[in-house]
Each structure stands twice: as C-alpha cells, then as structure tokens.
Amino acid sequence: MWQYQAPLRDMQFVFEHWLDAPRAWAQTTRFEGLDLALAQQVLEQAGRFSSQVLAPLNSSGDRQGCGFEAGQVTTPSGFVEAYRAYTEGGWSALACDEADGGQGLPQLLDAALQEMLYASNHGWAMYTGIAHGAYLCLKAHAPEWIKARYLPQIVSGEILPTMCLTEPQAGSDVGLLRSRAEPQDDGSYRVTASKLFISGGEHDLSANILHLVLARLPNAPAGSRGISLFLVPKLLDDHQTNNVRCDGIEHKMGIRASATCSLVFEQAQGWLIGEANRGLAAMFVMMNSARLHVGLQGLGHAEAAWQNARSYARERKQMRAPVRPAGVSAEDADPIHFHPAMRRTLLELRACTEGMRAVGYWVAHLLDQAEHHSSPVERQRALQLAQLLTPVIKAFFTDQGFHLASSALQVFGGYGYVSEFAIEQTLRDSRIAMIYEGSNEIQANDLLLRKVLGDDGQAFAQLLLVMREEAAQALSTNDCANFGTELAVLCDKLAAVVSAVRERAVEEGEYPYRVAGDFLQLCGVALLGFAWVRAARVSRLLPDSDPLQASKLQTAHFFFAYGLPEADYRIASIHAAKAGLAFIEP
Amino acid sequence: MWQYQAPLRDMQFVFEHWLDAPRAWAQTTRFEGLDLALAQQVLEQAGRFSSQVLAPLNSSGDRQGCGFEAGQVTTPSGFVEAYRAYTEGGWSALACDEADGGQGLPQLLDAALQEMLYASNHGWAMYTGIAHGAYLCLKAHAPEWIKARYLPQIVSGEILPTMCLTEPQAGSDVGLLRSRAEPQDDGSYRVTASKLFISGGEHDLSANILHLVLARLPNAPAGSRGISLFLVPKLLDDHQTNNVRCDGIEHKMGIRASATCSLVFEQAQGWLIGEANRGLAAMFVMMNSARLHVGLQGLGHAEAAWQNARSYARERKQMRAPVRPAGVSAEDADPIHFHPAMRRTLLELRACTEGMRAVGYWVAHLLDQAEHHSSPVERQRALQLAQLLTPVIKAFFTDQGFHLASSALQVFGGYGYVSEFAIEQTLRDSRIAMIYEGSNEIQANDLLLRKVLGDDGQAFAQLLLVMREEAAQALSTNDCANFGTELAVLCDKLAAVVSAVRERAVEEGEYPYRVAGDFLQLCGVALLGFAWVRAARVSRLLPDSDPLQASKLQTAHFFFAYGLPEADYRIASIHAAKAGLAFIEP
C-alpha cells in the first residue's frame, strides 16, 4: 500500500554538508541562534506530522473528494482535525517573524516542511500552501491596520488566505481580467468579480478566509498595468458574511481533496493592498516563494514515487534477472529490482529526487540569505541567483515529478493502474503542478527571455561561477576528479549555448521563444549535474561507515553516465530549432 | 468539449500513397477484388460509428464506470446499444474469413477501425479488443467441433472472448502461474483458477463469454513449458452456467468503463486448445495482432489528443504572440496556437500521430501480406518485418500516446485538468497501454534481445534495406533530397549501433538489457523519420491544389529539425550505458 516517510537522513545531509547551512546561519542576526540539532528536531517533528497525520488521509481524501452544497464546502474526513493539529503544532508560524507570533525559522526549514506536506498529502496541503506567500505580500504592502489585524491570524492559522487571479477568459494572460473594484467613502472598495480555479476558495478548515483578489479600478489602464490587489475577507469584522459566494467546485483529474472553487464577488467589501494599478507588483512578492513551493510539490511527488516504487520492487518477484548481486543465489523468480530496466528506473528516481532536493533547498537557502545575510552584496547576489533559479525549480521539478510518478507506476505493472496502491494518485496529483502558478511554458520564457537574456547574462554568469567553483573543488577531491572535469566542460557548453542563443535572437526575435523549453530542461539537467558533483564531493566528509557515503558516490556515477547525455540532446535541439516553426493552418 | 472525428483523409493518404495498398492487394487472391473506393466506404462507415455512437459515450462511460453486484457487471449507459449497433454493422466480422461468416477484409482496414474505436472510446473498445485475436487463435488451434460451434458466434459478435492469463503472483512472469486443469473422461477438463485483471471477464454486452484460460495440467513441467490453453465458456451448451465467478472489478486510473475483473474458476468445464503444455505457443498466435492493437490504442489517443488540442488552441486567446502569420493583425490577445511553445507542441502532436499512423498501418499491411501474398518469399519477408516491428509499435506508440495526451492537456492549461473537457480522461485512459499485453520494458527486451540480436540481425537488415530504398527514392525526388540524405545517414547510424551492441553483448551479457529501452525509442524515432521521408515523397503525387501536399512537406521539415535530434541522444545513451548499473541496496 502507498506509504510515506520523510527522508530525514537526506534532508539532514543537504542541510549539513551540501549547503553547509550552519555557516550561513551564523552570518545572519536572524538565524545565528539556530543550529543543526534544533533544525533536525523540527524536521523530525514535521516528519511525524506528515507520515502519521497527513499520509493516512491521502488516499481516503482522494476517494472521498470534497462535498459541495449550497455554497458550503466540506473537506474529506479527517482534514479538519489534521488542520487543527497543524496549527497547534505551530507549523503555520514556522517561517514567520517573531514579531507577528512566528517562529522566525529559515525558509530552508519551511522548504523541507513543504516537501513533506506535499509528498504526504498534496490535496490537503493545497489549503495551507498559499499562506506564507500571502503573509509576505501583506507584510510588504498592506496598510498597518490590516497587518496588525490579520498577520497574527495568518501566523496562528486562524484564517487561511487564497489567491484570486484566474478568470474564465484570463488564465496565463492576467492582463485580460475584468473584475472591478469601486472606491467607497470609508476607504474600502466594492469588489465585483467572477473568479475561477481558486484553491481553497471555500472550506471548513478555518473560521475565516482572506481572499487576495486582483481587480481593476474605474478608469484603470487596459492590460496588466491597470490591475490592483484587494483584500476581501469572507467574514467581516462583526462576523458578518461578506458578499462572496462559492458557486461550485471543479471535478478534477487529481488533488481531489482540494476544493478548487468558482467564486463570485458581488460588491464585496475589500481593501486596497499596495498602490493602485500596481497589484501585480504587490502580488509578485508572493511569486518566488509560491513558485518554489510548486517546485517542491514536484520534489515531494518524486520522493513519494521513489519510496513506493523501491518498496514494491523489493517485494515483487517476477522472472530471473540476467545478473544478480554477488552472493545472491538463483530462485524461480528474482525481486524485480534486480532487473536492469527496473534498476535503471529506480536509480533515476533516486538521482533526480535527491538531486532536486539539493537544488530546491539551495534556492530556499538563497532566499534566506537574500533577506538576512549581513552583507548587502551577498544579499543581492543571493536574490539574483534565487530569481534566476525559480522558474527552473517550478517547471523542471514539476515535469520531473510527473515523469517520475509515471516511471514509478510502471514499476508496479498492472497494480500501478488500480487505485488500491495509490501510486496512480501520485501521478494524477502531480500533473497539476505543471500548469498552475504560471504554466511551465511561461516559466521557460521567463527563464530565457527575462532572467538570462534580459539582464545581459549577469545572473547566469553568477550561476556558472558557482558551478565552476564546485568543479574546481571536485577536481582536487578523491574519487571526484572526473566529475569536476565533466562539470567544467558542461559549464563551457552552457556559456556557449547562451552566447549562441543571444546572437541568434538579435537576427530573429522569435528564436528564443522556440528554444525556451529546451533551454529550461538543459538548465535542469545541468543543475542536477552540479548537485551530484557537490553531493559526491561532500559525501567524502562522511565517515566510511556511513552507507550514505557509498550511495552518494554511486548515484553520482549513475547520473553522469545515464542522465547527463540529455544535456547534449537539449543543446542539439536548441541549435536545430534555428529551422522555422510553421503556423498550424486554421 | 471533447470531440472525435475519424481522420479519414489521412487514413486514405496512407492507404493510397504511403502504402500503395491496392497494388499489394492485387498480388493476393484474397483481396484482389478490393479497391480503394470500397476501402474508403468502409472507413467512412467506421468513422460515423465511432464519432456518432462511441464518442458521445466516452466521457459518460468514464464518469459512470461499471456497476458490480452479486457477480454481475453492468456496463455504463448506452454501451449495450452501442455493442448491438457494432455487431449489426458487421464490424466484428470485418477481418474474419468469409467461410466463418466474416467479410474477409484486410487487417489493414481492421487497424484503421481499431484506431477509431480506441480513439473514440477506449473503455468500450476493451470489450471487443481481444475478439479478433481469439478468433485467430481458435482458428489455428481449436478442435474442429469448437471451431464449428464458436467461430461463427465470435464473428457475428454473439459471444465475446477474454484472455485469462494474469494471476496475482504471475504478471509479466507467466511461468509462475498456478491455475490447474484436470482431464475428465469425456475429453473435457475441470479448470480451477484465480485470475486477475481480466478485461471484460464479465459484462452485459453479449449473452455468452468465452474465456481463454492458461492453466497447468497435472504433472506439467514447472515454468512456462508446463502451461496449456483452455477454452472455458461462461454458459455451457445447454445454457447452464459454468463454474466461473466474477469476484469483483478494479477501481482504476482510467478505462473505467471497461470491467477489469477478478475471475474465479472452480472446477469449471473447459476444453484444451492446441497441444498440452504448448499453451503459450497457441496464445502466441494472438500476440502480434494483440500487440498491434495495443499500439493502435496509443495512436488513437494521440489522434484524439491532437484533434482536441488543435481545436482548443484555435479558440483560446491569451497574450500576444511574438510573431503572427502573414496578414494577421494584432489584437489584445492572439489565439494560443500562434505562440511558439504551443506551435511546437501542436506540430509534435501532428508529426507523431500521422507518422505513427503510417508505420502502424504498415505493420497491419505486412500481416496481410504475410498471410495472403502470392509469393512465399514475400510472405516470409513480410512476417519477419512485422514481427520485428511489433514490439516497437506496442511500446513506442503507447509511450507516445501517453506523452502526447499530456502535451495536449498542457495546451488546455487549467481547463485541461478538470473533467469537463475530458482531455484528462485521454491521459488517464492512455496510461494502461504502456503496461498490459507485455509491459513496455518487456517489449524492449523482446525487440533487442530476440528480434534484433536473436536472429543475427537478419530482420533488422531487412528493415534497413526498406529504409535505404526509401532514402534512395527521396534523393531523386523534388523537395525531398535532403530528407533522403538524412535518412541514409540515420540508417548508417542504426547499423553501427546494432554492431556495437552486439560486440559489447559478447563481453558483457547484461549490457543489451540495460540499453533495450533506449534502443526501442531509437527505433521508434527512426521509423517516424522513415515515415516522414516517404510521406513527403509520396505527397508530391498529390495535386498542388490539395492542402495535404504542403502540410505533409511542412510536417516532415518539422520532424527532421525538431524530432530527429532524439536519435543521436538515444545512441549516445546506448554508448553511455557501458557504465555499470548498481543494484539498489536492500
């Protein structure tokens, strides 16, 4: 049956060795009191919550789905209790400021928590997923009275926020949205909107819900420059119901336990957040954190897929393998993880999952440094890198999450296709993350057009610098010299391909749009390569008796032989795309 | 909303130009009376049946699923009536011998029919899917009295057969099966078996069901050499119920309208088909046709995905595209099929779908030639090629069907993830085809180990010969010379990689198992390349006024620029896999 245990050992490895996080924490005033022992304690508690409270509700939540009647949403059995345990455990407060009642812990720890929540129960975690982003957004842009009133309630989990962006005609293109807000004499606004696909737009987990709504002021400019952000609570101060109505919930392929709502706002009372017509900028504060979270969904599904496939592959016996591990004698049938095709699948699951964890946590760690590092230069550098990497995390991780869930399903054979084992649920749940929070195609354009070509390659040069430093260190490390050589060659190729794209883009403006998807995949593979060089190198610091030492080196070897050829393929595809791309005839 | 129209124009193009089928039909006595006009008429009728009868039941069948109560299965609303229309239309008789009441039409036409059935309603088509294979199997191996009694009923559709192979402990490894059959004095057998994942094991479409059951005779040798095949009817001659019980149906990720049954046989009366202990050989008759059918499921899903994505991409407007077709002026937002990432997705959908259609129909056509060509040499050559290509069709097409369904879903954005548009159903339905009828990993081993290395490369040399002939013809055709050059280079690379694998396999027996998956993908891509060279070349025969002429050339250009780089990637992966592959630690 489907099961999930938080991969605490690997998380700890990334914190301690791959990131050397304690050294960075010591360079901030915010985290100087934090040490690995405390971090480990938090991870263990989060692990218990995810495996003991959320994981047992994953399949039942999917089967049951949400109830909807007369505007009310009922979440699946156990969800309300799990949410109570979540707030009582202080998980909603983890990375919030102590001044607001938060625990003041790093986003790095929150990233590990999020991975666990999404891995153990994506549907449930949709309700809490936007809370930290909304907290950051309000903190940066809301008037003081709103901050004073609502931030502590978000931190405590008394209220849950939503992000109301999509409308039927405005999905990827937020500039097309039509929702309206009219100013009132008392400083509030009347918001009239019809919003679609709003996760947690209505539910029974928290008493109140805070809707962050994008809408247009009267006479606002057309397009995305005329959009403002409003806070519209479900319940007003005197516990009076606001004019917000849930019109229905979607029947979806996956995350069925998450209520995806149509919301109708009819002259609902709301307040402007940030400046008029600058709603996208205000919401942008949520973006890096929200996109990182979605990337962590991909990582979480990959981890769940890997755990379940590994466990099934050890139990299931079918056919004799051409070769067995030393000392294992032949039986009628071998466990299927002896078979080469299954070994390859399983090693790919491990290599991608552990590699993504290192890279994903790195970005969370960069966001902490961007906010709290004592050096302004380092803060700037960290922000630049985090912004560059965010679209890769969002798109590459979620592509991989879906791909790896499908690979894991294949390990189960026919049993993978039936609901009983729930690996098919992992596949269904994982698919949404490629779409929402900016589709993966939009991430690819953001990466290549804005983040790489848009700043004259400065951020990308920063990334290459980090990777080249790693290559140099690996070159002088036992067992790792070859990895260092290969990583240096890869950096040269990356630099060359960016130059080539930049030159070609001058001649033909559409070219970078054609290759953006390949470029993002290339960056994803290169980052995994980087992750595995560093993992191999720092695993040398572990005692010989630690099985992780051999495992990391082995998986690095696997990735360099079996995973890295994709980089050349993507580069070849980028060059091949100099050929035009026809329009589909009507 | 989800819709399906049979792609009659492209089917006709493959029949007439790509295959030049009428010329081959003329070289057989069986099909010499068949011409394109008649074939076209059959296709049109099949198209009407699939789009007017089956397609409207696709989504409702998925939502409703099958009912199960007290051993009885109820199919979704409309399924019984659709099955009646199917048998009354004579579709069950299409490719059966006239002597048995069949229409004696080629498997090529049946392949087109199957593509339509699976594309329009995979769940429904599961009930009829095995019938032709069972017909062939019984025809080849059953005693005369069984043939006389049952073949006409299969042909007329009065009864539907099943294939009862899988048991809980025996999936890919049929040698592990434990079902038993004991001979009786009257020449029949008592079959005791517990079978799992039996498609159509019980339903309300036909009055009787014929189970083809693999089981062991007393004292049969262990493993796959001790397996015999039995025919076990649900109803015996006097309409008495046999001791076969449906114990339950699976809840599955997709094809929910198809009843996937657990069947319990308790001393059920059955009859031996073929020789004792030669059950796998007898069932093998069904294999080529059954695996081709599963491949056609992948093709059908790809076609449905392509149609629906194209249609949605034309209607949906979001954001301005960097470039528009000549003469189209800017609006607030362009139809999304103007955006480069979407154009690439849509062209990939077209290129793979139409390319697979040519290759898949070619294999069906080869099976016709293998049976009916006047020359024994040609019959042998056709069979050799069909057997070589069958695992590629099964695995590559179904991988593509799933991949392309996911690409199409992405075109729909958030609308793709909700049930309303049913593209998510296409994705869910398509996933099973990678698993059943021999998992795609087993197909890869079959291709490389048995079909390519196993016969000293004779069949593969035949394939290269066909492809090189095509390259030579393209070289001397207007607009196609470059395709010819590239195809010839690709043939050289294929020959080289097979030699390299063969040499390495001598040194290390496990190596081909490690690369079998990559090799199968390589063959799939190469076959698409071959398909597109021929499509481009023979499209020159169309009048200039036919839009298909330009479309085929355009899509060939797309495939050679954007699709073919994968071939080098697969070759590089095959070489990289010389590195060992660790065992996962327990």
Please give the most extensive interface between any two protein chains, plus how many residues each contributes.
Answer: A-B, 93 and 94 residues
The multimeric state of the shown protein is homodimer
Number of strands of chain A: 9
* Fraction of residues in β-strands of chain A: 5-15%
What structural category do the secondary elements of chain A indicate?
Answer: alpha+beta
**What's the order of the H and E elements of chain A?**
HHHHEEHHHHEEEEEEEHHHHHHHHHHH
Pfam family, one (chains A, B): Acyl-CoA_dh_M
Keywords (chains A, B): FAD, Flavoprotein, Oxidoreductase
Domain Acyl-CoA dehydrogenase/oxidase N-terminal (chains A, B): 41-158
InterPro entries (chains A, B): Acyl-CoA_dh-like_C_dom, Acyl-CoA_Oxase/DH_mid-dom, Acyl-CoA_Oxase/DH_mid-dom_sf, AcylCo_DH-like_C, AcylCo_DH/oxidase_C, AcylCoA_DH/ox_N, AcylCoA_DH/ox_N_sf, AcylCoA_DH/oxidase_NM_dom_sf
Question: Can you describe this structure?
Answer:
The structure is a homodimer of 586-residue chains. Chain A has 586 residues and is of the alpha+beta class. Among the domains of chain A are: 8-139, Butyryl-Coa Dehydrogenase, subunit A, domain 1, CATH 1.10.540; 157-277, Butyryl-CoA Dehydrogenase, subunit A, domain 2; 439-578. The first copy, chain A, contains 19 helices and 9 strands. Chain A has helices at 8-18, 21-26, 36-54, 58-64, 79-88, 107-129, 131-141, 144-156, 279-315, 340-372, 376-411, 414-417, 423-431, 440-452, 458-475, 481-507, 511-539, 547-563, 565-576; strands at 67-69, 72-74, 159-164, 180-183, 189-199, 208-215, 228-233, 244-249, 260-273. In chain A, strands 3, 4, 5, 6, 7, 8 and 9 form a 7-stranded mixed beta sheet that branches. In chain A, strands 1-2 form a two-stranded antiparallel ribbon. In chain A, a hairpin with a 5-residue loop joins strand 4 (180-183) and strand 5 (189-199). In chain A, helix 9 (279-315) runs antiparallel to helix 13, helix 11 packs across helix 13 (423-431) and helix 15 packs parallel to helix 17 (511-539). Chain A is globular. The first copy, chain A, starts with 7 loop residues before the first helix and ends in a 10-residue tail after the last helix. The model of chain A has no long low-confidence stretch (mean pLDDT 96). At the A-B interface, helix 9, helix 10, helix 11, helix 12 and helix 13 of A face helix 9, helix 10, helix 11, helix 12 and helix 13 of B.
